[in-house]
From TrEMBL:
Residues 15-125 form the Glycosyltransferase subfamily 4-like N-terminal domain. This is Glycosyl transferase. It comes from the Bacteria. Keywords: Transferase. It comes from Sulfuriferula nivalis. The gene is lpsB.
Amino acid sequence: MVPQLLAEGGEHFTSPIGKKSLFNLRLIWQLRRFLVEHKVDILHLRSRMPAWVGYLAWRGMDPATRPKLVTTVHGAYSVNAYSSVMTKGERVIAVSSTIRDYILKNYPKVNPDKIRLIYRGVDPQEFPRGYKPSKEWLAKWQHDYPQLSGKIIITLPGRITRWKGQLDFIQLVTRLKQNGINVHGIIAGEADPKKASFLQELKEKISTLNLTNDISLIGHRSDLKEVMSVSDLVLSLSQDPEAFGRITPEALSLGIPVVGYNHGGVGEVLKAMFPVGLVKLGDINGLITTAQQCLTQLYPINENTIFTLGEMQDKTFSVYRELQNPRL
């Protein structure tokens, strides 16, 4: 997005500040000079290693003239001193109620009054309801995956790792087929080399259950919007609570029903937009029943008015203005 930023009159500076190395602490003084020279108003920290560099640079400045400090907690990081830097902002943004609760539970010294709940957002223009892929995309999709022709497509997006719920998904496909639903399951996500053994376990499980023609592992996709738009149902089966889970509001914004476990950010999104899709964590029978209902009946999907890009931007700038003008 740098070309767009520059074309619109912005400035962009690069630095290896995100590299996970203690040598990055040498950048503290360089960053401090930058903040002073450019008269920076807001310093917004969003990742732990850069946050430590930024926080230490900021802490050493004159409190009367230094920038206002904002941090965003994007996930339920391991609880330790390294992660604690994400709670040191004058305002701390939590990307879901789940993350707000995580902060309050694990960092009790954080003043609740400085936490601001700002959900991650989906651009409704990028994910419009009723979106249809291009003819070219559809032709290639049908060429690459002819086994999907005439099938009811259910999709589980997410990288290949045990906690993302692929084993539950395989059970779901098995039971739906036994119940006479002509489904084909898609697992869309790549496997880190460290997860090669789990990927092999998935393949063996699919083969053992004679599902080779009923489940496709399609790897990493840069066209997940198109994949979801041709799906009849999208699943979110993470065993651990997602901090937010962007896939859920993206699919729902497209008008595709989502069934997911009722915890974390995914549970929050489903409660607001598609509560019929909520399933108790680990309840396989409930998962099968709910998925079958969503495939055989039409349930309304509420319009996305909460989890939008515009809402996220407006609330973030409100935090900036609040810090710049404490009387607001």
